[in-house]
């Protein structure tokens, strides 16, 4: 059967049938094309861009213009995956009007299918406002990197009963507000599984165990491209950084030794 474009209803269908949903991040045309080609359901143009591509220490400094620049490149490479633009810090936190305006830019200027924003119960009204404006919203609770300082750093969330109940309530509130999907980051697996059963939208885990409806990883982590820090929840399918360094060193040696370019790389006049 010919592959069809992923839609919100096909994602919900997967949850209903118990089929796992795949999500990966992308920030550029070439990577997005490969992710799309291997059949990944959804691509997140994550604000992890700030750390793994732009070299910031956190996702906090990322701007709308930076996100849009990369979202446009990703869209040029995608035919079938459902693409979500990640709203950067302070692009949706000041007012609902600003949230709608900035969410609209991902759809109108970049051509994304939906947006993602961080926050639970306190963000439910903003999620509803953006959804009511006609823009699908993916929620993100648990460890929310944009506000990690407030949460005490990059650590597991919902460890005690009180914070676990607050997470479950947040998930219910976002479901009620009309979010179509929910990312659960660094949450104990039992709480993630409970949330997955409690809400109608699919849940996508990152450090939230196998009980979610799907999984997401930062592609640069999966490929072993980002060497600064490897979180426990990352499975590195490749260690690309050392391989790339080896290839780059071989090029330097070839040029220095005069063995590149060879006759096969050279035009005869
Ligand atoms: O920005 C990002 O890549 C994310 C994922 C880690 C879910 O938000």
Key structural traits:
8 strands, 13% strand, alpha/beta, 10 helices, 269 residues, 41% helix, single chain
Structure description:
It is globular and about 70 Å long. Strand 1, helix 2 and strand 2 (42-45) form a beta-alpha-beta unit. The chain has an eight-stranded parallel barrel with strand order 1-2-3-4-5-6-7-8, surrounded by seven helices. It has ten helices and eight strands. Helix 2 (29-37) packs across helix 4 (64-77) and helix 4 (64-77) packs parallel to helix 5 (96-110). The chain is 41% helix and 13% strand. The longest helix is centred in the C-terminal third of the chain and has 18 residues, at 240-257. The protein starts with 7 loop residues before the first helix and ends in a 12-residue tail after the last helix. The protein is an alpha/beta fold and 269 residues long. The chain binds 3-methyl-2-oxobutanoic acid (KIV). The site of 3-methyl-2-oxobutanoic acid (KIV) has 10 residues, from loops.
